[in-house]
Amino acid sequence: MLQGVRHIRAFVAVARLGSFTRAAAEVNVSQPALTVQIRQLEESLGVRLFDRNKRQVVLTQAGRDLLPALQRVLSELEAVMSASHDLAGLRRGSVSVATLPSVAAGLLPIAIRRFAADHPNIDVKVSDVVAERIIQLVKAEEVDFGIGSRVGPDRDVEVTDFLCDRMCAFFPTDHPLAGRRPLLLKDVAAFPVILTARGTSVRSLIERTLEKEGLEISLSCEANYMSTAVGMVRAGLGVSVLPESAVDAASCEGILVEPIRTPGLVRRIGFIRKANRSLSPAAERFVGLLREVAGPTLAHFSNLDGAAGKR
């Protein structure tokens, strides 16, 4: 494309200025180089574009006929190149991400604020949805990438590790579980339990662990959003099992949050993109910024994950 743009630009300059010398100066090449470009363009088009001698350069009839079309082509190609350079240079564009609500309420706003300060002309669009919906949006290419958990084997998506989030019990300060150390899932299961809805990564993780531990629960309530589950806890409807990051997603005033030490209750969160699809420069930069923002949290959760595995 670049060579074609140079050739057409050289032709338009000679046609407008009527001089190879002046045209060469305008497009910043030597006159012999410009002459070669015109000759190559004539060969590719199969027509002679100029009649020239030592005193003058004039368009041939073919050159006059092609000039308007080539001017339009040049304008469109230069617009494409300008837009491409803007995208590569992060001067314009957009980033769309589907994410778990807990990430949307915690890390994401910090990253968006920093990203907007560095790249004010790039829009960031966020869809905070459950894990299954994240996968659907990524596979349909309705978002650039997702931040969520695997919900099962799927060759159509690629997941890159991001962080880990341990499960905690949320209960009122005067609850019988207050002060119990270590707190295990079997302790929580002795009370009415509030869980997130089916299809969420948290619900799937808890159900797998309950089955592994041979435990049954009395399900008090279900909620689509963690903030709703915390509100139900505050109302005395039961004990909720939520990721530690839910503290960022809801007001936990008057509620105790205690890690559950049962092995395996750690939610792994990753960047999800469609298999064999590359990210735009803007999306790549946003992913990098998310890793920077999550740096301290990532180290903290990694330590927790390792500790859980040793228990």
UniProtKB/TrEMBL annotation:
Q: Name one GO molecular function term.
A: DNA-binding transcription factor activity
Task: Tell me the keywords, alphabetical order.
Answer: DNA-binding, Plasmid, Transcription, Transcription regulation
InterPro entries in alphabetical order: HTH-type_LysR_regulators, LysR_HTH_N, LysR_subst-bd, WH-like_DNA-bd_sf, WH_DNA-bd_sf
Q: Which residues form a coiled coil?
A: none
Question: Which is a Gene Ontology cellular component entry for this protein?
Answer: cytosol
Keyword Isomerase tagged: no
Where do the HTH lysR-type domain residues begin and end? 1-60
Give the superkingdom in one word: Bacteria
The Swiss-Prot or TrEMBL record describes its family as follows: Belongs to the LysR transcriptional regulatory family.
Task: Provide the protein name.
Answer: LysR family transcriptional regulator
Mind giving the lineage of the organism this protein is from?
Bacteria, Pseudomonadati, Pseudomonadota, Alphaproteobacteria, Rhodospirillales
